[in-house]
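Run log, item B.
One chain of 262 residues. Sequence copied directly from the ordering sheet:
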Amino acid sequence: MLNIINEKPYKIRVGENSNQFNKKHIYIGSLVPWDGEWYWSGQQHRYDKVSDKDTKEMKISFLSTMKTVPYRYDDDLANKARNSIKNQYKYFVEYHGKDLVVYPDGRSMADDMQKQYIFHNESKLKSFGSSSMNSQKYEVQDITKSFPPELLESDNGVCVYFNPDEGQEIMQEFYDIINGFKKRGVNLSEDELYAIRGFICSEVISPSFVKKLIQEYGDESISKAFLIPDNNKYYLDYLFRRYKGDFYRNRYPNISFTDTSQ
């Protein structure tokens, strides 16, 4: 069978069911390696008499909706995504001068992010030369519409951290977090303790983000929030593994490509 995403052949053992397969069929399902061969895993969905046009549209849809799944078996596509994140990181730091930015509220964050994307597109145009700048126009959509209302209405500090390996991470209620870190474990309010616990327990906030704050403010307020004795040297590793264990497994860029011709 041919994987329509990475255009590579797979020889799959199907036993006595080989007669049900046809050249015009497309299957969506999972494969697992075993003893040098591939086997079906779980249920497969078959599509009959699929045209070349439908195949292309299916490929584009899969790449745009499944996101990280194709990167597991397509190294070229995964490297393309990683390079894209590196470029986005470069533009973020070039625009802000740093990789961590704090805004007073969600609206100001969204507005500035809109300006950042305009800056990003203008930088791309300049790289093509002045003639291209006159002949091409980059339309930047209103990205504020893509943010959830609760983020836009947040008014207690919003932090955007660009993880060079993962992409952007956004944290609400950041004033309570940063103020709690600055106190270095002394006289923290209930709101600050609660915010720090949420920061550590969040599965979408990376250890890299947490370490960024620890590097500047220390970890005393984290140990205070989790009632950890001051002489415990390994508690951070425990907390990271417990609440952010997914970051210690194989991870792939959380971006998608919709134009397979690029």
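Observations after the first pass:
- The chain has a mean pLDDT of 86.
- Residues 86-248 form one domain.
Flagged for discussion on Thursday.
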